[in-house]
Amino acid sequence: MSLALTIGLLIGAGVFLVLQRGMIRIILGFVLLTHGVNLLLIAAGGTARRVPPFDGTDAAVAADPLPQAFVLTAIVIAFAITVVMATFAVVGRRDDDTESDDTVGYDTVGYDTESDDTAGDDRPDGAARGAAAASRRGETR
Amino acid sequence: MTSTVELLLPLLAGVPLLIGGALFAVPGQHRLRQVAGIATLLGLTAAGVVLVALTADGSVIAHQIGLWPVGVAIPFAVDLFSALLLTVTAVLALVGAQYLIVSGDGREASSIPLLLVLAGGVAGALVTADLFNLFVFVEVMLLPSYGLLLVLSRRGSVAGARLFVTVNLLASTLFLGGVGLVYAVAGTVNLGELAGAAEDPAVALAAGVMLAGIAVKAAVFPVHGWLARTYTTATPAITAIFSAVHTKAAVYVIYRVYAVVFDGAETWQPVLLAIATVTAVVGALAALGEATMRSLLVFQMVSGIGVILLGAALFTPLAVTAAIAYMIHHMISKASLFLAVGAIEETYGTGRIDELGGLRTREPLITAAFVVGALSLVGLPPFSGFVAKVAVVLGAAQAGSALVAVVVLAVSALALVAMLLIWAGVFNGKRNAEVERRAAVARIRRREGLLDDDAVDDATVEAEVADALERNDPPRGAVDDDPHDHRGTRIPVALALPAVQLAVVVVALGLGGELLLSLSQTAAAGLIDTGAYVEAVMGR
Predict the structure, then answer these.
(1) What pLDDT, on a 0 to 100 scale, did the predictor assign at position B471?
(2) Are residues A86 and A116 in the same domain?
(3) Could you tell me the CA-to-CA distances from A88 to A109, B158, B315, B404 in Å, in that order?
């Protein structure tokens, strides 16, 4: 039961974070989501009716190794994708449409923490170019 | 013979992955990467053709990886359905690689290696008969795709790539959750052991979670919206390759799981039928509202996926035959169209329908390729679309769903309207006055490695325009205000060639429709009666 509740909590928090606009929050959301699913995989092995496989444990009640192998694989994949997503969070600032108006505080990657989207065109390099690019797109589309 | 082939099955995924991985280590060697990439994809195509020949009699080739006992090993199994799709995806990856190379994107150090990893992942996903292993291979397909979107986004744009990652990761997570649930209720993720397991409502529900995840990847209504916003942000070659690979691999999984685990259960027919028809109609209607050629084609693709899924919904031998034939036709025709409009976009610097015009008289090769692809998509003879669409309509009518047959015909009419929109705006009509300028800006940006948002100096553009007008001599007898003035920018033949090659395949498939249908029929029989597949997977 505690496992089910933990899974529910993780998935719920993950979904909440994924629905936010900031890329970093989405990434953190996915970290929680994949943790939830990993626990689900562990639960699929029947944790309630099985015991740790120590020497002499009856094979019929020993923990199922297959879900554990699943989880190991899933952890590796999730780790790789988290790295890829973190890359997406720091490159290509100029067409960023995932930033909201209240970016102060979590928008710490790429440029200084003081800047937020209301700062306008007086920002240095990357950010200012992004705003300029956005206004150009507005004209052409 | 067959036993040797069995042992070689893991190489289908292994060789492209290994070569792709090794090519990352030689960032300086453009030529080596390109040759090795093309050679690997040629080999994969050849392997696909051999497998089609071996399974054309309806037999199934299966291998237990590592020769572990059945039930412990991860099984790989190839029947005609997987072999056909493997061949088509390999061919399209090959043509995509060719396009990458001629368009200059192949010089990007990681593009060809990433494409090989993608091809290896697809091959793995098409041959594995283990659901968790399928999840792994789907991820192996997706990771290089993220890389390709990032590396080849001309506009310096990551918005589309971020959306792609987010949507696909969410879908993968859902799929993985479904796999976990299947294991929890059925105690196995081996497709052979799961045959017919969906009679148990708990397994049906668990597999349904899995299918919901994969449906997002297949861009089925109502989860299709992400497709047009992501596929169009990378270069045209990527759109063509992704359209052939990602959504179709997802459709393959839907067919395989529905055939094996659900045994084509009639219980779910109304639901599937509704989803498939609505997808077909929504995609066809949405296409009409798009302003760029590629996003229009992407929505047309959503419509095509709806038509393909009709076969899974009806699940009669004729309907599944038609769906497989349609799937093969759709992958090739669509890729041909994407590469044709890609060549235009690449050369003229814009994909907007209202910013082009009059290409009909200037670009005979691309016009021919587009016309073949477009008419095939609509479903006119003698192209592959005609054969496939007739089969789909007959299949629907025979299954007693006259309404579905009518919907398919209506969708074809809408496809015709969509293609006419492109024809009228891009190929017919007058040349856009700004066309030379935009083409010049595109050339300068490419030459100097600038992104689409970078400003280009006006004087440089003027010089480039004048240069282009000078370089291509006007045809004899041309006058200065001739609307069909041939001076200026033209699409290089090498860039047009990939689309033309695929157009030739489209015509060949149309003329050789009988072969296409007879292969599809055998493949469909293997899906309707999964006995041979299950036996092979179970090593019996």
Answers:
(1) 64
(2) no
(3) 11, 7, 42, 43
- Both A74 and A18 in one domain: the answer is yes
Q: Which domain holds residue A101?
A: 97-141
Question: CB contacts < 8 Å between A and B, how many?
Answer: 89
Domain ranges across chain B: 2-430+492-537, 435-471
A37 and B166 within 8 Å at the Cβ level: the answer is: no
What is the pLDDT, as a whole number, of residue A140? 39
Chain B residues with a Cβ under 8 Å from any Cβ in chain A? 132, 135-136, 139, 142-143, 146-147, 150, 153, 155-159, 161-162, 165-166, 169-170, 173, 176-177, 179-181, 183-184, 451, 453
A130 in the same domain as A75? no
Last residue of a domain, one of A61, A76, A91: A91
Distinct helix (H) and strand (E) counts, chain B: 21, 2
For residues A116 and A80, membership in a common domain is answered with: no
Question: The whole model's pTM is what?
Answer: 0.87
H or E element that contains B187: none
Distance between CA atoms of B118 and B201, rounded to whole angstroms?
A: 35
Q: What is the pLDDT of residues B205-252, one digit of tens each?
A: 999 999 999 999 988 888 888 888 888 777 888 888 888 888 899 999
Question: Across the interface, do A44 and B146 touch by the CB < 8 Å criterion?
Answer: no
Q: What pLDDT score was predicted for residue B4?
A: 79
Our CA-based measurement puts residue B383 at a distance from the nearest CA of chain A, in whole angstroms, of 36
Cis peptide before B483 (omega within 30 of 0): no
Confidence of residue B413 (pLDDT cuts 50, 70, 90): very high
How many CB atoms are located within 10 Å of the residue B392 CB? 31
Q: Measure the CA angle with vertex B529, ends B524 and B532; round to 5°.
A: 100
The mean pLDDT value for B198-203 works out to 86
Q: Token match 């028809």: residue?
A: B277
Same domain, A43 and A110: no
Q: B75-131: per-residue pLDDT in tens? A: 999 999 999 999 999 999 999 999 988 887 767 778 889 999 999 999 999 999 999
Residues of B in contact with A129 (CB under 8 A): 453
| Confidence check: pLDDT of B373 > 70 | yes
Cβ–Cβ < 8 Å for B141, B171 = no
CB contact under 8 A, A136 and B453: yes
* Same domain, residue pair A15 and A50: yes
From A55, A74, A91, the end of a domain falls on A91
- Asked if B139 and A77 come within 8 Å (Cβ–Cβ), the reply is yes
Task: Give chain A's domain count.
Answer: 2
How far apart, in whole angstroms, are the C-alpha atoms of residue B214 and residue B125? 12
User: Which residues in chain A are contacts of B157 at CB distance < 8 A?
Assistant: 92, 95
Task: Look up the ipTM and state it.
Answer: 0.80
Same domain as A58, residue A115: no
Give the whole-angstrom CA distance, residue B89 versus residue B395: 25
3-state secondary structure of B481: coil
Cβ distance A97 to B159 less than 8 Å, yes or no, reads yes
Q: How far apart are CA B118 and CA B88, in angstroms?
A: 14
On whether both A16 and A53 belong to a single domain, the answer is yes
Which residues of chain A lie closer than 8 angstroms to B205, CB-CB?
A: none
Q: Which residues lie across from B62 on neighbouring strands?
A: B77
Q: What is the pLDDT of residue B154?
A: 62
